[in-house]
Amino acid sequence: MDIFDAFSQAIVSEQFEIGKADFGTEIGTVFSEASACDVVIDEGTYATTGRTPDVPYMTSDILIYARPQQMPTLVTAKLTNGYIWHDKINDLYYEIREASLGKNQETGEVEHVEFLLRPTEIAFAEENSDE
């Protein structure tokens, strides 16, 4: 049983989209060609000391599970180096720190794609998502 069958009540639709990321352009990171995805979300927050000892650096990682058929590719190296996630409701962007394929151990079929995300900033988002 895959995560989407096991936790059907936890599926979030229409909130997250994955899109191409053009890193290092003259204006910074550009987000484009986005498409909506169904996900299951697991959030966490941690604090660490930054360069200034008295100012803690707060950030949060999000672990999400996405349907493989909604991914632009199943090549994890391409996902981590060429795509960004966007939370449309909160207008937050996330870089992909890790991407893993969750396979059925009996059949070898990819049942979900697991992403570890970290908040990031973008310079520009093209308005051509499939909303």
Indicate the topology.
Layout: H1 3-6, E1 12-25, E2 28-49, E3 56-66, H2 76-82, E4 83-87, E5 92-103, E6 110-120, E7 124-125
Parallel strand pairs: 2-7
Antiparallel strand pairs: 1-2, 1-4, 2-3, 3-6, 4-5, 5-6
Your description of this structure?
This protein has 131 residues and is mostly beta strands. It has helices spanning 3-6, 76-82; strands spanning 12-25, 28-49, 56-66, 83-87, 92-103, 110-120, 124-125. The chain has a 6-stranded antiparallel barrel.
Q: Helix/strand-derived class?
A: mainly beta
Largest sheet: 6 strands, antiparallel, barrel
Which strand order does the major sheet show? Answer: 1-2-3-6-5-4
Name the shape in a single word: globular
Number of helices: 2
* DSSP strand content: over 45%
Ends: how far apart?
Answer: 29 Å
Q: Segments where pLDDT lies below 50 for 5+ residues? A: none
**What sequence of helices (H) and strands (E) makes up the elements?**
HEEEHEEEE
* Number of DSSP E strands: 7
What does the radius of gyration come to? Answer: 16 Å
Instruction: Determine the fraction of residues in helical runs and give it as a percent range.
Output: under 10%
The overall average pLDDT, rounded, is 87
**Quaternary status:** single chain
What's this entry about, in short?
This protein has 131 residues and is mainly beta.
Q: What keyword list fits this structure?
A:
globular; 2 helices; mainly beta
